[in-house]
Amino acid sequence: MATGCSTNEAKVKTDAKVAAVNTTKTETSKVAVSGELKVHYINVGQADSILIQQGSSSMLIDAGNNADSQTVKKYITDQGITNLDFLVGTHPHEDHIGGLDYVINSFKIGKIYMPKATSTTKTFTDVVNAIKSKGMKVSAPTPGESFKLGEATCTILAPNGSGYKDTNNDSIVIKVTFGGNSFLFTGDAEDVSENEMLAKGYDLKADVLKVGHHGSNSSTTQKFLDAVNPKYAVISVGKGNDYGHPVQSTMDKFKNKNISVYRTDENGTVIATSNGKDISFNVKPGSYNGAKEKVAAKTTTTTKSSNMNSVKAATPKVAAPKVTQEVAPKQSNSGTMVWLSATGSKYHSINNCGKMNPNNATQVTLEEAKKSYSPCSKCGPPQ
Ligand SMILES: [Zn+2]
Ligand SMILES: [Zn+2]
């Protein structure tokens, strides 16, 4: 068993005032550390997978889409790792837990954190079955709880509630502190969760922010960004993705605060190394280029109709890209893609089936579509 990995070794007081006064007893104070903390934001396209190493200890936060399983496994293996002390599935979306079952079956796993939120998807069932067949149990995250990863301290900051309309807000948020450096990992946590973390008075300050929900406009509220006040931001996002991530308005917030942004679509895998004082990166920062807001109206989730409408209502004059020909859905990391019209309850194999406006049609994975839509009987999409 790796040393220094036991959970609850130190219950860190996350109340900012207590932490400030009680500096000798809290792990969040700038304690002297040896060695390095290495954070790998693995390039898994439009998905998340982050490997964190300190000494001989390691933690994986998310494992990409199902299609990324072998990429993630190989990356971890290439670091000489056979044992993951902690495995975190931030929330039940495929682009976060897709490769989790494969990882569980490939490595010795210490402790698995997942939120209480469940899903009816095959991806989620696969993960649950992998955990069961290994005789393991899932630990539910308790905000304020902390555990050691080598000499680093990991503190859970969210989710602070349950029964969210959008399961992105179920995302486990973790702050990792190593000496005087800190990293915040937010999964797909959106404004709702960000506001809850602010209301709880947690010390959100971090040098490096893993940007929530791939840079979507649903996350990174100005208040939250001001509280984290990072020097660096990292976005895990797929090149030319269909979701319009990252959105320009989010990129502008980073630009305005002079925050260097690293992004997997431009930089590939991003590796941040901390010695407890300074943080260095393996690549140069990426651009502040983002997608126009209109494209971001369709997010990776299907339960946001009110939000989608409000976005659309706010930006009625932005012209949609002209698509006049029938376009078959392209294959992505996420598997089979299908089309959704701007309104209606069916999903389609083509973007101009019947009365739908092809210019407003958007692509989602078949798996996502099946959650809220039924197959169109006219164009007969995959089921
Ligand atoms: Zn999500
Ligand atoms: Zn996501």
UniProtKB/TrEMBL annotation:
<protein>
    <recommendedName>
        <fullName>Metallo-beta-lactamase domain-containing protein</fullName>
    </recommendedName>
</protein>
<feature type="domain" description="Metallo-beta-lactamase">
    <location>
        <begin position="46"/>
        <end position="239"/>
    </location>
</feature>
<dbReference type="InterPro" id="IPR035681">
    <property type="entry name" value="ComA-like_MBL"/>
</dbReference>
<dbReference type="Pfam" id="PF00753">
    <property type="entry name" value="Lactamase_B"/>
</dbReference>
<dbReference type="InterPro" id="IPR052159">
    <property type="entry name" value="Competence_DNA_uptake"/>
</dbReference>
<dbReference type="InterPro" id="IPR001279">
    <property type="entry name" value="Metallo-B-lactamas"/>
</dbReference>
<dbReference type="InterPro" id="IPR036866">
    <property type="entry name" value="RibonucZ/Hydroxyglut_hydro"/>
</dbReference>
